[in-house]
Amino acid sequence: MLIKTRRRWEIRESEATPEAVFTDRRRFIAALGIGSGLIGAGLWPAREAAAQTRDPTADLYPAKRNETYKLDRDVTAEKFSGDYNNYYEFSTSKTVTPASDALKTRPWTVKIGGLVEKPMEIGIDDLIRRMPLEERLYRLRCVEAWSMAVPWTGFPLRALVDLAKPTSAAKYIVMQTFQDKATAPGQRQFWYPWPYTEGLTLEEARNDLALMVTGVYGKPLPNQFGAPLRLAVPWKYGFKSVKAINAISFTAERPKTFWEGLQASEYGFWANVNPAVPHPRWSQADERILGSNDRRPTLLFNGYAEEVAPLYKDLQKERLYA
Ligand code: MTE
Fold it and tell me: Is the pLDDT of residue 204 over 50?
């Protein structure tokens, strides 16, 4: 039975000093008009400036924060979270920028199909403008036992499911990353089961926490984070959060995911965070916070048990945690 207590990440905003500093920076930038003054003054890093000018939805950032989602720790500075990424299409090292900057994210079309009333192809800018954007502070826990806390901007995955109108036969949503060997050298490595594929049950996809991400740190998503569209499911290990999505389909069958295809004994479909279930190579008991030497105990469902544990009450025979 779940006992309702104050959740560990429910702290007052004033207690998270660096976050408040970060918020001030956002307000300052917004007041200047998305940083155009700074770009003109040559104070804005060149790469960010390029990202801002080529993104036709830049005017939507920063989006209003949804205060429901609070952290139990400071926001990770972008210099750490943006320079330690997993993006196997571009590199197996953590430094994927500037290789990932080679990906052109406009024009970008998302195909929505499978068991839906009306399959469609929709341009990313149309999609983003049709969806209710908001900012949420979320944690991300990687199965490699590091974690970060970031202000994602995005829209509830549920809104996309509603747009797609899956038929009653649909049980799963499947999301895939672009494929382009010329741009993504990792995709020339034939032993990986490209394209990167992830999936959720429709019930998981409709959970409040499931977020389609289009931005971070109050601006459009930089490429290394998975521009122009990625998933965030913070109660699951980070590998479920598929990047650079251009195909979404609804199926009756459970999909085989990228990491399952590579090593099913180590990476399962469910991949819910659980400190008591170790991975063969990493204890899941605690986690290293990016940008610091601190370690913290890992929490069941990454601390989001109250929101998501009910999803799994009838699935106890499944391998829910690996
Ligand atoms: N999506 C794609 N397409 N390719 C990848 O290699 N890596 C995953 C996930 N999404 C990955 C991906 C893994 S293992 C993690 S931990 C997160 O992205 C990392 O997200 P971040 O780089 O924004 O921290």
Answer: yes
From start to end of the chain, where are the E strands? Answer: 109-114, 120-123, 134-141, 146-156, 172-177, 197-201, 211-216, 219-220, 230-232, 245-251, 286-289, 295-297
Q: How many residues does the chain have?
A: 322
Mutate to test the pocket of ligand 1, among 217, 239, 267 (most ligand atoms within 8 A of CB): 239
Q: Atom 4 in ligand 1: which residue has the minimum CA distance?
A: 87
Residue 199 β-bridge partners: 174
48-77 pLDDT, tens digit per residue, is 444 445 799 999 999 999 999 999 999 999
Q: Is the CB of 258 under 6 A from ligand 1?
A: no
Is 65:136 a contact under the CB 8 Å cutoff? yes
pTM for this entry: 0.86
Retrieve residue 19's tokens: 């976050």
**Best residue for ligand 1 mutational test, from 87, 183, 192 (most atoms within 8 Å of Cβ):** 87
Q: What is the pLDDT of residues 110-165, one digit of tens each?
A: 999 999 999 999 999 999 999 999 999 999 999 999 999 999 999 999 999 999 99
Q: Which residue has the tokens 């106890």?
A: 316
Residue nearest to atom 14 of ligand 1 (CA): 239
State the average pLDDT over residues 302-313: 98
Rounded to an integer, the average pLDDT of 272-277 is: 98
d(CA 30, CA 34): 5
Q: Which domains does the chain have, with CATH numbers?
A: 21-54 (no CATH), 61-312 (3.90.420.10)
Q: Is the CB of 225 under 6 A from ligand 1?
A: yes
Provide CB contacts within 8 A for 108, sequence distance 6+.
123, 124, 228, 229, 246
